[in-house]
Design goal:
four-stranded antiparallel β-sheet; alpha+beta; 331 residues; single chain; globular; five-stranded mixed β-sheet
Length: 331
């Protein structure tokens, strides 16, 4: 959990304890090494079978580093670790559910039963310097045609023209999400077609061989001032990042006087590539389901979803509460 999210969760816990006399919130963190995931999950399952286990899960859905062990929300929901939240969520009239991204919120439902509350989501974005695009006879439309077209485009550009955030993580996470269904969870079988996998690998090779200069990440505005670490300073005029980086990319571009285009990256079939980047669930055997839900739902409130500083809060992606974006971004 990053500094922004951790700070918010800690502040909610402190306020919750003040408002509920006799209630103590203990925050525990999962393993920092991805190799310890299986052991950790088995310990949790054993605790649940014994009528114990966590009251609440708050988990990233993106494996930016090995610190985040659970990437597959669908697998997590089917593992018997979560309480059925359908009645709680459906009867919660005080949440601004009409302002939530319905497609993202549906990702927390399996066979009509809600086990997870998605909190933030993310998808890859192509950032481009509009002046440089025009100078190279490129248009926004050229970047909207999907992954295969982008991979083909790299072979016509000079080396290093396209940069990428977070290196191979970007491709492994988001491009894998561009594939159709990988696993049939009911049958526990891999259902990915060979031709689709081949296309994915060919696109991956093209982008990593012909055009992409891997960067160490996008700096914040404060760290950018006075140095040349921003992607446009390295001769790159197309940058593969994420929606979560929109605020800091926009601020730095404004400081540079760049007209910045932000284009959602799409799969070869034109569909948007996205995933749940942070979500919450309640432990299946909690003795305090009402209190656990009362705590969890606070993460869906506007003052939490759009709490500044946005660079910290948006590290995991974009809030599912879409209506708060205008006032927050104005600040």
């Amino acid at each position: 959990i990053n500094s922004g999210t951790g700070r918010v969760i800690q502040s909610i816990a402190e306020r919750f304890e003040e408002e509920h006399t006799g209630v103590t919130i203990k925050i525990s963190y999962g393993p920092e090494n991805g190799e310890e995931t299986d052991v950790w999950l088995e310990q949790i399952r054993t605790q649940i079978m014994a009528g114990e286990g966590p009251d609440l899960f708050l988990l990233p859905g993106e494996n930016i580093t090995s610190e985040f062990p659970i990437q597959d929300v669908n697998q997590f929901m089917r593992a018997g670790l979560c309480l059925d939240l359908t009645e709680y969520y459906d009867n919660d009239k005080d949440l601004s559910k009409s302002a939530f991204s319905s497609a993202v919120m549906d990702a927390g439902v399996v066979d009509g039963t809600r086990y997870v509350l998605p909190l933030w989501f993310n998808f890859p974005v192509i950032y481009a310097d509009m002046q440089q695009l025009e100078a190279h006879n490129l248009t926004i439309e050229d970047l909207q045609k999907g992954m295969s077209s982008l991979a083909d485009l790299t072979q016509t550009l000079e080396p290093g023209a396209i940069g990428s955030d977070y290196g191979d993580w970007f491709f492994n996470l988001y491009w894998m999400n561009s594939l159709s269904q990988l696993i049939n969870y009911e049958d526990q079988a891999v259902v990915l077609e060979k031709a689709e996998l081949v296309e994915y690998l060919e696109n991956y090779r093209a982008l990593t061989t012909y055009g992409v200069s891997i960067s160490s990440g996008t700096p914040t505005l404060s760290s950018y001032i006075g140095n040349d670490s921003f992607w446009t300073k390295n001769g790159q005029y197309i940058f593969l990042g994420t929606l979560g980086g929109l605020v800091q990319n926009s601020r730095i571009a404004k400081a540079e006087g760049i007209e910045l285009a932000a284009i959602p990256m799409r799969a070869s079939d034109g569909s948007l590539i996205s995933n749940v980047s942070f979500y919450g669930a309640i432990g299946a055997n909690t003795q305090y389901p009402d209190l656990a839900y009362e705590f969890l739902r606070q993460l869906l409130l506007e003052e939490i979803q759009w709490q500044p500083p946005l660079e910290e809060m948006l590290e995991f992606g974009w809030p599912v509460l879409l209506d708060g974006s205008g006032p927050a971004l104005d600040t």
